[in-house]
Fold:
Amino acid sequence: MFYWGAAAVLVVSFVLLGVLWRSPLLAAREYGRGLPAWLSGAVLGPLRIVVQALSVALFGLVWVSALFGDTDPFRNFAPTWIYVIFWLGVPTLSIVLGNVWRALSPWRAIADAFVWARELGGSEASPLAEYPARLGRWPAAVALLAFVALELAYSDPASPRALAFAIALYTYVALFGMAAFGRDTWEAGGEAFAVLYRLLGRIAPFHVVDGRVRLRWPLTGLAGAETAPGSVAFVAVMLGSVLFDGYSRTTTWQDLAARVEGPFVVDQPGLGELLVTLLSVGGLLVAVLAVALAYETACAVARWMVNAPRSLVSDFVRSLVPIAFVYLVAHYFTLFVTQGQFAIPLLSDPLGKGWDLFGTADFAPSLAVISPNTTWYVQVGALVAGHVAGLAVAHDRAVTIFPDRRDALRSQYAMLALMVLYTVGGLWVLSRG
Structure:
């Protein structure tokens, strides 16, 4: 019933878009209205500096907790902060407030402080090399894939020591990339979380243009094309990783993993874990490739239906961004609500040493705040709303690039089929988990 209902909502939305949305709307409202200059100055000046300082301090606390704290992930602050607060909380902030990662990123803050110190001493901080344009967002896609592989494929992803090593490695790469190619350049193509949160921030009603905060209609930031190489791969990792996470919880996958590991559990447990890890990495890659292939196929069909002179892949990739966010919501919001509460007591005792720094060590999280029915309805509502938003973004782009309204509509038949496939597929995975 839910599969058919969700598909019907998408079809009805498609018809209404075709009837009512006859000219580009998102691009015309992309810049919006500027907020008062004093407010923009405060947000982008003193407040940003304070937030950056706090982000570096918090980053240091998380790394020290992972490196020196209790090895039990339930008594260590780092796993809950990384996999719950950071991984699920920052995307929500991004779609509400815009690209907040520019201020929250500890690596950007460290790089900014270094540049400020050099310029204060009379030296110029300039990039060491020119970033190859052909790389585009491929480094960010690979980095994001590595992070989700650690979370979803590694045998002990919540191990504080493993996280300490991962933090140190990512920090080295991020700071080296910024030093080599420049802060803005590396964030645009190489820093996975900067690319991720910048894309999600395009959904938000707030954005910054020429040093001023502006208010716009939600989704208007998704107008236009994504021409940077690797953009489709990056979005495919965003979607495919969540899809694999859901499927990996099904009995089918669990039985397969047990059969792979079973023969080695007694005599060679390490080898068994390695084989399951490799199996999970393979499954993750298959999910990412499946998402990318489905999108590329839909764009090829759309191009064929309107006899377009060029590929349409770069034109509609932003329509997948709302879908990537609602996949996160559908799969992880219960984790965020329940496990996120544990960040309160863990903040007072980040290393698991029995401390009570802020008086919250005795806080008792409530694990029964969301019923199974509520979970399902939120998941369905989020997936349907996200795919309707994706249809709207794709339709606006179609009426922008195709002057003939009939061509614009024909180009969207394949996108409608793609959205229905993503929606029903997502619901199926969620219902089997």
